Amino acid sequence: MRVFVLLAVVLLLAGAAAYLALSEPVEFAASAPRVANAVAVDPAEIEEVDAGTGGPSRHRLDPAAESTGSGDPQDPAQRAKWMSEWYAIIVNPEAHWRDRQDAVSGLARFRAESLPWFVKALEHEHARGLTLMALAELGEDAAIVAPKLISWLRDEDWGDTAAHALSKLGPAGEAVLIEGLDDPNDDIRESIVYALRVLEEPSRDAVNAVLGAFGDASKDVRLAALRTVGTWGVEAEVVVPALIAALTDPDDEIVWRAVTSIGEFGSDGVVAVESLTALLRSLDDDVRDAVVSTLGQIGPPAASAAPSLVTLVDQDNKRWSKRVAPALHGISPAAFVATLDHESSRVRLGLINWLSQDAPVDVVRTGAVIDGVVGRLGDEDDMMRARAVRALGRGGELATPHVPKLIDALEDTGTTVRWQAIYALGRVGLGREDVVVALIAVMDEARGSDLMTAIQSLRRHGDAAAPAVPRLTREIDAATPHTADALRTLGRMGPAARDALPSIRSMLLSDDDGRRLEAAIALAHVSPPAQEAAEVLESFRVHDDAALRLRLVIGLAGAPAQRSILVNRLNDRNTDVRLAAIASLISIRAPEKLVGELIPLLKDPQESVRAAAARGLGLQGEAAKAALPALEAAQEDRVKLVRVAVGKALARIAGK
User: Fold this and answer.
1) Nearest-angstrom CA–CA distance, 46 and 117
2) Exposed/middle/buried for residue 154 (C-beta within 10 Å: 0-12, 13-18, 19+)
3) How far is CA 100 from the centre of its chain?
4) Average pLDDT for residues 571-588, to the nearest whole number?
5) How confident is the model at residue 68 (pLDDT cuts 50, 70, 90)?
6) What is the pLDDT of residue 43?
7) How far apart, in whole angstroms, are the C-alpha atoms of residue 207 and residue 136?
8) Greater confidence, 487 or 561?
9) How far apart are CA 8 and CA 195, in angstroms?
10) Which of helix, strand or coil describes residue 635?
11) Under 8 Å CB-to-CB from 401, ≥6 apart: which residues?
12) ∠ CA 459-461-465, rounded to 5°
């Protein structure tokens, strides 16, 4: 609870700082004297003010006092009078809150001379918060009062505020806080640790004190200490040994926090590897999750932990493979590849699963990994072979030499293996005749999802898939469930699919809107001047179904003859359609035309559209100079996503 209170205190202090900074400015001719030279204040004088009426109700700094041009009263007695009047307002429970804030601001202008008044104000409960905030703002000028704040650390209501104020008083306040860590009250120690967190450059004594709190009897204090050290950026050789000691804590949450903190040191956390490896036997899954991740962050220096990580996958493949695989690769790519041949099928499948779905492509696209994946194509387990095929399909150019193996996999006894091979051949070996022939053969034999995947894979081969035109035409003529996919694939081939024009045109008369639209889009690519295509496309421009309008815009990407439809859709009522229109126009529109069309979209009601318009303008480079005024105005957009896109566009266009 006190943590939330402390956060509220920090926000209040920030607000008070802003208020004090913005209050009516009074610049002194010379900086205020330090405590040693401060004007002596008679305690009886303060007592007399306490017994008074509380001073004026709206007292501000009097311009008449600026006879010297400095704004500072001319003599010590006058200064004492002003301070007494402001003090009276601060402690007056009936004064308006704004009056008290004004008075605090005025009194604080006298820096160290105001300290006796502020210390006395702490005795008044209704003035305590503003007073502690003022002392925090005075910073090291108020260092001498640090011992007087010790008692307030123990106050249930004001302990957090007092601790934060002490953290702002420099070394003197820091020393008081460190001493307070011996307090028997758990909440006080927790508040002190969080207050120390504010220190930008903690002393070694403060660091040691917080590290010592890792062993505090209170869990909340231990957590506060772990979080505090994590914000300081103290060197690993100082912190990591203490974090290792915290790994034996009886509370799993503390252990988890210590483990994740070690991970932030990367390879500098190597001294913790042995202790972390032992924690892989923890009963708490969250702790083990953190350990696996941290070992991966430590990287190659954590090589000794690799066998234990593999054992974890062998025990529970489904839970740990996605976590262990990236960690193992981070520790040692060579060990990772070697483990693809592990004797346990659970381990092999766990790593292959990661490569086939979740691994970054730059991990898959290395010679060693590709070779390891190919080695699994002959595995006895159907699922293993299927995942290996899919992983190989992510291999890019490096997988091209292994295309014959993917074609062979089309004859595999495992149905999942065959489906994955069809999918992979739409990503590897694009444009190869043997791949196209193999996919056409699949179409002749396959049904259901295999047939659909074969058509989609052929689409990725573009005009190189022209030998498939007769087979695709049969799907259209028979009006099968795959007709729309066949039309899309023919459209991707462009003029190479001219032999299919009669079948495509026949679909323009379909009573199915989706097929009719796909036929018109295909015609726009296969035979761009086709007037009948333009008429059908125009009818879909205002279709009630936003999904069809979106498909219209996406399908016309790369079809210059239909750019007028795309321009029109920049004002579509559907956000996704407008975004698709921007993307499609960027691919076909001349910069001098596109720039004028995108500028108005910088004021679109949707931030995603504004950002997309800015990115599109940036891609035009110097050709988009006419957009500079609009982009400069858009730098004030209320959404960060847009401001970032605008900034990048300006950099591309004008080098700003």
Assistant:
1) 7
2) middle
3) 42
4) 92
5) very low
6) 52
7) 21
8) 487
9) 13
10) coil
11) none
12) 85
The band of 59, judged by pLDDT with boundaries at 50, 70 and 90, is very low
Of the listed ranges 65-69, 162-166, 312-316, the least confidently predicted one is 65-69
Euclidean distance between CA atoms 622 and 615, whole angstroms: 14
Alpha carbon 645 to its chain's center: 16
- Measured distance CA(284)–CA(254) in Å, rounded: 12
Q: In the numeric block, which tokens belong to residue 448?
A: 């259901």
The DSSP output letter for 122 is: T
Instruction: Catalogue the E-assigned strands of 371-456.
Output: none
Name the residue type at position 240: V
Give pLDDT, residue 81.
80
Which pLDDT score, from 0 to 100, does residue 73 have? 53
pLDDT of amino acid 66: 37
Tokens 């299919």 -> residue: 500
> By the 8 A CB rule, do 368 and 359 touch?
no
Radius of gyration of the chain, Cα coordinates, nearest whole angstrom = 36
Burial (CB count <10 Å: 0-12, 13-18, 19+), residue 649 = buried
Q: What's the pLDDT tens digit per position in 426-458?
A: 999 999 999 999 999 999 887 888 999 999 999
pLDDT tens-place string over residues 594-623: 999 999 999 999 999 999 999 999 999 999
How many Å apart are CA 401 and CA 515, to the nearest integer?
Answer: 38
d(CA 598, CA 577): 14
pLDDT tens-digit series, residues 227-237: 888 788 788 89
> Can you tell me the distance from the alpha carbon of 462 to that of 491, in angstroms, rounded to the nearest whole number?
9
pLDDT score of 320 = 84
SS3 call for 590: coil
If we measure between CA atoms, which residue out of 185, 188, 143 comes closest to residue 166? 143
Q: For 56-156, where are the E strands, in sequence order? A: none
Residues 90 and 107: beta-carbon distance below 8 Å: yes
Query: CA angle at residue 583 from 581 to 589, to 5 degrees?
Result: 85
Average pLDDT over residues 61-72: 40
Long-range contacts, 5-14 (Cβ 8 Å, 24+): 5/160, 6/160, 6/163, 6/164, 6/191, 6/194, 6/195, 9/160, 9/161, 9/164, 10/164, 10/198, 12/129, 12/133, 12/161, 13/133, 13/136, 13/137, 13/164
CA distance 90 to 117: 10
Give the CA count within 13 Å in the CB-facing half-sphere of 311: 10
Q: Which tokens is 71 given? A: 């704004």
Q: Which residues of 390-401 are buried (b: 16+ CB within 10 A; e: fewer)?
A: bbbbbbeebbee
Q: Which residues of 72-111 are buried (b: 16+ CB within 10 A; e: fewer)?
A: bbeeeeebbebbbbbbbbbbbeebeeebbbbbbbbbbbbb
